[in-house]
Amino acid sequence: MDKMDFDFYRNFVVVAEQGNVTAAARKLSLAQPALRAQIKTLEEHYGTKLIITGRGVRQLTLTETGRLFLEKARQICALEENWATEVNSYLLGNIGTLRFTTSISKTTFFLRNYLQPFAENYPSVRYEIREATVTEQLKDIDEGYSNFAFANAPLPLKQNYGLLPSGQEDFYVVYQKNNKINFTAGETTTLAELRNMPLFCNFSCLQILSAHCLRQGFKPNIVFTSTTKTAAQEFARNGNGIGIVSFNKNEVLCDDLCYSKIIDEGLFYEVMLFWSLQREMPPHARAFLNFYKEKVKV
């Protein structure tokens, strides 16, 4: 007997519950000789008698070993059904662990707009998020720690990754209305207006901001840098300088601060979901990617 032929165990349970082979064969839509052969195969495989049938008597009796075997057969069938359900759920993307590495300033946005809505539809999937720089995100993807990364900074070696553009982050000046440096702005601001102004920004903005200012003929007066744009905004709140931060159009801004979009060609980030093309994507990750594509209308 093939040890993985679960039908033999299932059919034995039906025979025991029906109390005779005729009724069991009818319920299973099997020929009686085939069903009797299965029981004989089980008995030969385990080397013991499982049922007793008297001559001319339709009702069968389980031996003591048969009663023990019935209990174990039920357990085996239940386990197999659970395995089948779990495997099917895995293949449908309903279970598993999804791991993400996100840019620190984008975690809340990513959670609110993408991961939390997905989790509502896939409550049995587990989730892990690590906040990191783009360099660390690339490492996590390359080493297989994360299924996806969500970044708002330029990516090198783009040919190694699957990429899904997810919107644009424009640069803004952030300042206290009654600030101590007499700075004010309209809906938009040029880089030239920031010359010599004390600026606060996060590290992800620093490089691209400096490059654009140098093209305008001056070096920006960066007096404070931080890991997150939250800290840059908080520093601007005291009125001693101007925060430079990037925002997606859907992000919620602080009510007590003023914001003005910086107008300079190419001064923006493309927000990107990316993943490795070198690794097979598990079903639950594929389910997330399909969900994400729908959200960003790709």
Structure description:
This protein has 298 residues and is of the alpha/beta class. The protein has 2 domains: 6-91, Arc Repressor Mutant, subunit A (Orthogonal Bundle), CATH 1.10.10; 95-298, D-Maltodextrin-Binding Protein, domain 2. It is 41% helix and 24% strand. It is built from 9 helices and 12 strands. It has helices spanning 6-18, 21-28, 32-46, 64-91, 107-121, 134-142, 203-215, 229-236, 283-295; strands at 51-53, 60-62, 96-102, 125-131, 148-151, 161-175, 188-189, 199-202, 222-226, 242-248, 258-262, 268-276. Strands 3, 4, 5, 6, 7, 8, 9, 10, 11 and 12 form a 10-stranded mixed β-sheet that branches. The chain has a two-stranded antiparallel sheet with strand order 1-2. α7 links the parallel β8 (199-202) and β9 (222-226). The longest helix has 28 residues, at 64-91. It is rod-shaped, with a radius of gyration of 33 Å. The two termini are 52 Å apart. The model has no long low-confidence stretch (mean pLDDT 87).
Beta-strand content estimate: 15-25%
Number of helices: 9
Category by helix and strand content = alpha/beta
* Backbone shape: rod-shaped
User: How many structurally independent domains?
Assistant: 2
CATH topology of the largest domain: D-Maltodextrin-Binding Protein, domain 2
Major β-sheet profile: 10 strands, mixed
- Total strand segments: 12
Oligomer state of the chains in this structure? single chain
- Provide the helix percentage: 40-55%
Helix-strand pattern = HHHEEHEHEHEEEEHEHEEEH
CATH class of the largest domain: Alpha Beta
Terminal CA distance reads 52 Å
CATH architecture of the largest domain: 3-Layer(aba) Sandwich
Mean pLDDT: 87
Our Rg estimate from Cα atoms comes to: 33 Å
Low-confidence stretches: none
